[in-house]
Amino acid sequence: MTVRMVDAPGDYDEVNIDVQDIMIKSSDDTNDSEGWVSIVDDDFTPGIYNLLDLTGGVNVLLADELVPSGYLGQIRLVLGENNTLLKDGEVIDLDTPSAMQSGLKLMVNQTLEPGATYEFILDFDVAKSIVSAGGSGMYNLKPVIHVSATATSGVIKGAINPVLEGYQVEVSVPVGDAVITTFAGETGLFQLNGVPAGTYTVTLTPDVASGKTPITITDVVVENGEITNVGSVSFE
């Protein structure tokens, strides 16, 4: 899954948010202190992002990680203390509730299919998230974030029956200028992951030593977030 952040603009010159971590929770357990897992890798550097740079189709990639398939309950955006806004040339500290440092919890409630790729967009509504503290000149950060999820690929699976014992079978599908490949397992099962939506031709190529002729399966339709099962395939 990938997590990206975008912004709905507000009436400021800059709104700088201190992002420290991205976490997910698979279960629907209401215990806030348990079940959370960070999905940022060693390449992730906590940092400050100006939300007003993230408009007009621009976004920032916060996480891009393999996660377990199944139910995904929540995403947690963990913020630090260095949140500011720039208004009329003045840098103003945003008063951030201490709860934000343990993480802003965003409800997802979605089932992730195995092998598919999902993109989660965190849309930060600046106009609603920055609250003026009366006439004091101070501003509070009370994040309002809308979460949307899009499956950006699907899966093709099937089985070779009977199995070509002792011989490998390569399974491939061309996707643009690239080719996605895998090998059938010992039980004959195969699965091609990360295939974008479209109509494809799948080729099963057995080891030359088997004496078998490759098989092509045409008009295989893939939908994002779905598993397309081509069923059982037999070599002559």
TrEMBL record:
Signal peptide: none annotated. Coiled coil: none annotated. It comes from the Bacteria. This is DUF4382 domain-containing protein. Pfam families: DUF4382. Residues 2-143 form the DUF4382 domain. GO terms for molecular function: carbohydrate binding.
